[in-house]
# Entry
Amino acid sequence: MSVELDVFVGNTTIMDEEVYQLWLDGYTVNDAVSIRMKSGILEQFGTTEDVLESDTMDHYRTFQMTERLLHHPSKLVNQVLFQIPPHRQAMLIERYYAFDEAFVREVLGKKLSKGTKKDLDDVSAKTGITLKSCRRQFDNFKRVFKVVEEMKGPLVENVQCNFLLSDKLARDYAAIVFFANSRFETGKKKLQYLTFEDFAFCACQLIQNWTVGAVDNMVEDMDVDLDKEFLQDLKDLKILITDKDMLDQHKSLVCTGLRGKIQVFNEMEGNFKNLSRGLINIAAKLTNTKDVRDFFIDLVEKVIEPCKADRWLISDVRAFLTQYTNSARALDGFKHQAVWERYMCVIKSCILKMYHD
Amino acid sequence: MPGKLKVKICAGRHLPVMDRASDLTDAFVEVKFSNTTFKTEVYPKSLNPQWNSEWFKFEVDDEDLQDEPLQITVLDHDTYSANDAIGKVYIDIDPLLCSEAATVICGWFPIYDTIHGIRGEINVSVKVDLFNDLNRFRQSSCGVKFFCSTSIPKCYKAVVVHGFVEELVVNEDPEYQWIDRIRTPRASNEARQRLISLMSGELQRKIGLKVLEMGGNAVVGYLQCFDLEGESGLVVRAIGTACTLDKISNTSAAQLPACNSPSKEIKEAPFSEDPNPNTHSSGPSTPLKNQTYSFSPSKSYSRQSSSSDTDLSLTPKTAKSPKGPRISLCPSSPTLSSDFPTLINPFQLHLGSGTTHSLTPPHSGHASPLVLRKSVSFSEDLLLAASGMGSGGSAGKDGGHLKTLLRQQTQSALEQREFPFFTLTSFPLGFLIHAGGVVSARSVKLLDRIHNPDEPETRDAWWEEIRQEIKSHAKALGCHAVVGYSESTSICEEVCILSASGTAAVLNPKFLQDGCLDCYSENRLSRQPTFFSTGSEKGEFDFFLQSKDSSSMLGLEDTSPPSCGFCHIPYDELNMPFPAHLTYCCNCRRQKVPDVLFTTIDLPIEAAVTGKGCLIQARLCRLKKKAQGEANATAISNLLPFMEYELHTQLMNKLKLRGMNALFGLRIQISVGENMLVGLASATGVYLTALPAPGGIQIAGKTPSDIAYEQHISNIQKKINDTISRNKELYEIHPLEISEEVIGSPIPEPRQRSRLLRSHSESSDEVSELDLSHGKKDAFVLEIDDADAVEDILSLLTDAPLPTGFYSCNTENMPGIHNWTSSIQMFTTVRVFRLNNVNVTNQGLNKCFNDLCENLLKSLYFKLRSMIPCCICHLNFTVAVPEDELIQVAATAVAMTFDKDQSQEILKSNTAPMKAISENEEQLQFPMELSSDSPSVQTFPPSKGTGLLENASPQTIQGTSRAPSLDKASPLAEGHLRLRSTPSCTDSTVTVVKMTPLSFIPGAKIIKYLGIINMFFIRETTSLREEGGVSGFLHTFIAEVFAMVRAHVAALGGNAVISYIMKECVFMENSNKNQAQCLINVSGDAVILIRESEQEGVPIQTHGSTNQTPQSGGAPVS
# Structure
């Protein structure tokens, strides 16, 4: 005796969150059944394996049918095929668009192209995430990217409106889109210690302060592309390192301000010029797309690593950067206060975010 | 031209891409009604077109309005080639024809294609301006309300229950016409869908006419079915109960408003023509007790077949004798007058088809002349039994009376067409006086081509026969009516089994007539001998049956308490139709009750019940040789009685095993396949307080000499006893006053007399002997004659126990559970099993089928585990044998959660019946109590909040908060405002529509019925694998059917479907060709609900908040 056909359809679509997660994680029905069995569900409800299998199959079918709607979450809300309570819809969408930390770190900043997709089996092998799940996550990134890429208005809001994601998830996607668009390098060995959350935070800072949208909020690509004019203006900051007097003056102001306030005062004093050069050079090079991509590497190499080498505490870094930023205002002949503030506030928060082991 | 239909096409959304090049669609719409077609403009290059058409106006006859569906076709315009169809929407405009139902249909309808399924939605508005036609010869019946619900709809009261209405129409099936060879599957499917829609409309109209003729204004318990007879055609048939309903909310007691004026006019006419049945309605004094007349079929036919009668019960093989026992088998139960006309049906068959050649019985060719003669006598017998009993005269034991009776019969030919049947399963309080037991009849027919579709006489005659049969069985049980009546068919190739069943009952005449207004029903009643004589004195019931004077029943409802009255036997104790074990009612101690009661109705709400109920199923498979034509029909006929008997035995055993004594909602389905018959009986077992405690089950071995065997037997006995006591615990069956029988050994001495297999073979002489023998309570004896069979029997009997927290029943009310919470989950489940060749024996087959059903149940329990504590209600399995070695089981049911603690409280304090009564009264007669009643009794705690429950959502509230505007004064139907306010807004959310197979939704009040939903869909695919195989295909289709039902209900302004059933689910596949086809027919009542806790005057301002903000595409919902 064999089951030819077996379906169960509820007027309100029944969806088990646990099975949904297994499906999202790319397990086959058989795998899902054995995972569920390990959870002791059979004993708990006194049922048998075929019941569990039938249940899992039903769920998988339902999810497969909903998947096409999940690609356009606004359709899910207005579709008629499945009657799903609003909070369940939100759960479905949220989970569908959720991604694995390990995966996103592999893909972050890469071009969301077919080529990258082809390499997903490597990513899968490396991260232990099933290929199916990798593909879903990659496709999600790409889909969101395509939709919001050329849209007017704030990036986060666009993501949120078009994909009905939670605030947190929408921000993450904004970061992913932002990284993918500017192709920031995140995969280098030196950057491996950074989490997605670190990058997402930095992306948020960059979006808020350095993009076109920071000054004009009705431009296309406002949150995706960096403000070219601003980048151009950054070159003016070079004066801080090229003008010997100004550099010295800057140094002395910072030293005065920090004396007795940080543990690594001597190291700071000794390294000031290198640090300052590092920071200003990053700014000056940002007009080159190539150098934009290396932004995080540069931050790590030019600032974070030297500080770490001298065993700066994060409070030291914070105090230094604050003092460093503020002191520039008092410099005679330094006329680029606005650009300086706009640059340094991002640099400061990024460095502080990235300053950990 | 009494009607103007107006249609407006507003917009479309989510259309499929029809032009690959542009990824867009140039859509336009054709609106067709009858023979008129309108078209919209082409809306170029959009998947969300905004047509905003003018109002297309169709001026049509109301006859057409009733018959024809509105057909909306969405097409893709193509300049160079033919326009491609995207899909269609059929809208049944019938609800608009009744002023009490919906006034406008407006909303988003899924665009459906039989090949591709749902392809986007279209927003349509439909209105009808109806002019009253006072022409009494008209063919339309606008204004008659239809309800699928098998109880009086909640916001109405029954003024009169007129009785049975039936109709059938036939046509050729487009699928089998020659043209089908050359047209596309899509065209063929659409032709079929359209035809069935048309036939349904016609059928409904014709039934409506009959109702108007009877003076009614509504059909309750409307059940429409399709018989796909293949080559020989397509039959659409319907049965229902005609009623005059009055809206409760009209406290003004105003007689039925304008819409019913036609019916009133007509009212007089039919009565004048009505053949006066007084000729043999011999009035109250008709001597019912005339000793020449016997109620008992077994007696009346004993002369012909008494020997085979006995033999049949003992040794099945003799039943093959052409002398086939007619109405002999009343297996052991005093309450089930089940018989097997099927045995002789080959002969009926040839009678019916009007051919003259006689059939050759398969077993005894030489007996053929005898058979022929007998078949004739049978048909006379049949009529005789009916008419004779009807007239209260002495039904002939010999042919001498035949002529007279036949003459009488022809005289009252018209009247004979009327059957005292009621499709209702639950009744107004006091309506049902006694329930006698289940009556059923089956007949096997060979299908022949329907030559003249306009005169479907053959099919009519077939059903007529069956109904007569039923009627006569009811008489035999001393009942004048049949309630909970239903009809069904099972077709395989050219063989068709027709089945009908119901519960013989005695009803209160009060409800069947409306003073002297309705002389029709009075006539009909007076036909019923004695029972309904509106005599004078209050007869003591105890003496009623014995007394020569046919005293009135008027006092009955006063003398017998409602909680047990219906259990009291309606038949004569000294002259019982079958041997039964009678005792005094445990409740009132005054009247006799049987030891077991089987019925097809719901548990009367006023009935006193001990403990909880449970679903009981009997399952059976029988192999059958493949055969053709008449031989096949004969083979099936021969098998049927054994199947029915065995199912019945199983039911009885399982009932005893659960320590219960009554079955409600009994449905026995026997499906025929090429090489097997499958039988499935479902019912809800319950312990009726009024009935005596059931005895246990005694196992008896055949060979008592063997000690090891004895040991084995006693082990089984122990197992069974344990199961019984475990079940009593589980279902909380602790009779309030425990009688000595129960305390004592549950298994008393086996007595030959009560042997299961023989009890019915008792002659009636012995019957009197068992009377009053309540002291010696009998155990049910199960005889095991084969050592190998022991385990099988045990496994068949002992179903897997219910998981904790679950209950199930197949009726509307779960006995013993009253405090439902508002979370419900309706579902449809379908399974198809392939029996591999290994199981060639009946036993193996049985086991497979049993496992199949058990597994399905297990799956349901697992799936719905998050709803615990809950009860799966209305769990009715439908079996079919679509192909060789395939068994299909389908079920549509609802899981409802309840509050566990409260239920016990209520049970303990025994207030349940009281509450029930008051509820019942409320819906019946006393509208003023509406507000005070139910909310105070039931408090509905908030739902458990698990995501998969249908929590009452804001939409529900919002859509239904218009209770006060019920008045017809407002031209806009309540609930429509919402839909209409944003008709073209593509971002409006979808209305939440609840569905349930029950006639109520816990925690909610029905404030308006919007009309019936009756939809038929075909879906076909040529890419089965790509759509996820058979399961994927059917899963999608069922989800689509739900979606379309919900959309139609929402468009009517409703937010729920009650009494929803899937009447047909025919699935065919050809995996090799990668093809599959499925037909689904569903029906239900569209209603507007409001939550009971809600104030009636809640303002509507929730509107904006629940709809997603359109511009932003909707924020995520928390």
In short: The beta strands of chain A are 2-10. Chain A touches chain B through 55 residues (CB under 8 Å).
